[in-house]
Each structure stands twice: as C-alpha cells, then as structure tokens.
Amino acid sequence: MARIVMKFGGTSVADIDRIRNVARRVKREVDAGHEVAVVVSAMSGVTNQLVAWVNQLAPLYDAREYDAVVATGEQVTSGLTALALQELGVDARSWQGWQLPLVSDDAHGKARILSIDTAEVLRRFAEGRQVAVVAGFQGIGPDGRVTTLGRGGSDTSAVALAAALQADRCDIYTDVDGVYTCDPRIVARARKLDKITYEEMLEMASLGAKVLQTRSVELAMNHRVRVQVLSSFEDKPGTLVVDEDEIVEKQVVSGIAYSRDEAKVTLTKVADKPGIAAAIFGPLAEASVNVDMIVQSSSEDGQTTDMTFTVGKADMERATRLLKSGAGVTGYAELISDPNVVKISVIGVGMRSYAGVALTMFQTLAEKGINIQVISTSEIKISVLIDEQYLELALRALHTAYGLDRQ
Ligand code: ADP
Ligand code: ASP
Ligand code: MG
C-alpha cells in the first residue's frame, strides 16, 4: 500500500466528463489499496475569467478581495470531484484551504504556505480510506481570510500536501504527457524526458516553462518529494523529477524555456557614478517590482551610461510611472519601454563542464538574423531577450542546434 497525492490541472477538470475521467483514475488507485489525496485546479479558463473580472472592476485592486474572487474556481471543482467519486462508490470528501487548514503568510495573491494540518485527513485514511479532495491554489492567511498561491499554484498545493502527508508519490496530471525538452505546443520536435533533475526543473519552471509552478519544484527539492508529471488522458509513464545522481547520461543542454511575461525598460544617459544602480533599483524593489535582467552600457561621451532592465509585463506601467515621478534617479535623457520582448533560456547541468554552449546560442540566432537585446547567464543556464515576433523561429532553431530534436 502506498500513499499518493494526485493533482489534476485545469484541462483535466474542464467539464463534467473530464471530472468523471479523473474520478475513474482516482478509483483505480483506491482499488489498488492506496491512500489517496487529490488536489484539483479550477476548470480551465475559469481563473483567467475571474482575474479579468477583478481587473475590469478595479485595476488597482485590493488583493484580499482578489483572493476572495479567484479562489472560488477550485471550490467548485473540489466539490464536483468529490461528488463524481461518490457516484463511483468511492468514499470522498472535499476540503477547502481554510478547512484543513492550509495556513499561508499574508502575501495575498502570491502567498507562501506555512503549514498544513493533515490530522483529519490521516484519521479518515486510517478509518475507512476516505479520499480527500483538496481545493488547490488556496489557503488561509493570518488575518483569517482566504489567500491564493500565485498562478499555477495548485502544483504547489499538491507538493506541499505530499510533503505534509509524507506521501510516497506526487503525481501531477496535466494536458501533456510529461516534461519536454521545450514546450511541445511550439516545438513539434520536442522530446519527452523520462527524468529531469530538480535543479533543471527549477530553472525550467522559473524561466517560464509553466508545466510546474516554480515553488512546487522548490518544495519538492527541499522535501525530497517524488514528483511525476503525466497525462490525465493517456495511460503511459510521464517524467520523473529526480536527484542528479539518478541520471546516468547527462546532457549538456537538457531543455529550452521561454517567457512572454517580459518587458524591457531603458534609461538613457544616466550619470556614470557610484550609487546610480541603487538609486534606480531601490524604489522599484520597495514597490515590489521584480527586476530580472540588467545591462549597463557606456554612452559615447564616457560620462553617462544607458541602463536597460527587464520586469514582468504587468509591472511595466508601475516601473515607468515610478521612474517618471522622480523616484530614484532623475537625470536621464530618455525613458523607453517595450513590452514586445520574450526571454529564451537554454538550461543544462552539463554546462558546468562544457564550454561553447553560449556561442552556439549566439551563432544560431545570428544565422536567423535575430538580434539579442540582453544576455544573462548563471552556472546552468543562458538567457537572451529578443523581439517577440521571433519566438517560435528562435526556439525551433535552438532546439535543432543543441541536438534536442526527436528523431
Ligand atoms: P495545468 O492546467 O494542468 O496545470 P499548465 O497549462 O499549467 O497545465 O501546464 C501545462 C502546459 O505547460 C502544457 O500544455 C505546455 O504547453 C506547457 N509547457 C511549457 N513548457 C513545457 C515543457 N518543457 N514540457 C511540457 N509542457 C510545457
Ligand atoms: N487555477 C489556478 C490558475 O489558473 C491555479 C492552478 O491552476 O494551478 O492559476
Ligand atoms: Mg499549471
């Protein structure tokens, strides 16, 4: 007998038929004698709709009310999934975040999980193997109000629950059958990976591959949760997220990720003197604007410098407004912002010991006539910022150049 957490994403619970399909999958595990906790997302499209309504009514919304609205999608699917299980004769009960409770901090809209009380779920496992169907994405904050864990947060609910229950497995069922070398919806020749390391998965997720939420991978890595990503529509093994030593053959580049959620801001001709970066980025940090890539280049006169950086698309307005209002640095010639950019990153633990990975990237993009606007690197990844119209061309060319194409 094993204890397993099964998480189903939005497309897997998109309508009543699919919820029935989920229930059948859960029943199979129950019939095999396992203890099962299920985590569900909202029906696909529902969270987007809820967010859109909030924005329509109040662009600078109160985050507590945002959470009150957007957490509702998961309430619906958890109840429906429990009902579908009951219809199949499986004892099941739904749980909202506050009922467990799954306690989070007070960062409404992007809350972090602090603790999960599993006592009652465990008691019911022991008593009659009742299935717990937990609403993903939501918790309860210190103010006693509902919180949400950031977009894609049901993955994190599932991994956190698996850690708290000391589950043997955490299966993440989604609309693709595993983690691929690149988003299979854009690169048709992407290859499914049997295994990927926590570290690479963490980079892939944080650089835009939304198949797993970044925090879920962090949690899985820290608590050594065995995560598998697999399809809810097909019966075949998915991708296991594992320790580095479980991977025998290490690729130099294991995957390519992209993010459309980027905007570029440039301040031209700011004084080239100590303290200038702190003056620019201090106020942005205070306003919780996350700055990602940064380049500084000297101007012709040698006295001034151009500062270019990227922020999330949703933060571009706020960042430019702050800078224009005179927060931080006031002396600059021009402030240019551009939301039509994407970030592409190549990732691989093998990069630590191989040179030339960056050169391949630069040459491949050059051959396609694609200009690189910003570059940033770390030990196991290289990222470039390019014009968004070249996204697909760049991904496919790089995928081929690194020998990742499926044969
Ligand atoms: P769910 O609703 O099940 O949580 P998501 O839409 O959040 O599903 O994540 C699955 C999607 O992630 C896939 O449909 C795919 O387009 C995208 N994706 C991006 N990069 C990858 C990758 N490297 N491997 C697999 N899927 C990826
Ligand atoms: N429903 C939430 C979202 O769309 C959480 C999730 O699906 O993981 O972001
Ligand atoms: Mg998701």
CATH topology tier name of the domain at 3-175 = Carbamate kinase
What's the level 1 CATH class of the domain at 3-175?
A: Alpha Beta
- How many H/I helical runs? 12
The structural class is: alpha/beta
Tell me the strand percentage band. Answer: 25-35%
Largest sheet: 8 strands, mixed
Overall strand count: 18
Note the overall shape. Answer: globular
Q: So, CATH architecture of the domain at 3-175? A: 3-Layer(aba) Sandwich
Overall mean pLDDT score?
Answer: 94
Structure explained in plain terms:
- The protein has 407 residues and is α/β, with parallel strands linked by helices.
- It has a domain at 3-175: 3-Layer(aba) Sandwich (Carbamate kinase).
- The chain is built from 12 helices and 18 strands.
- It has helices at 16-31, 46-57, 63-70, 72-87, 119-128, 154-165, 198-206, 214-223, 276-286, 316-324, 357-367, 391-401; strands at residues 3-8, 35-40, 92-95, 102-104, 113-116, 131-135, 138-140, 146-148, 169-174, 195-197, 227-231, 239-242, 255-271, 291-298, 304-311, 335-347, 374-378, 381-387.
- It has an 8-stranded mixed beta sheet, with helices on both faces.
- The two termini are 39 Å apart.
- The mean pLDDT is 94.
- The structure holds adenosine-5'-diphosphate, aspartic acid (ASP) and magnesium ion.
- The site of adenosine-5'-diphosphate has 18 residues, from loops.
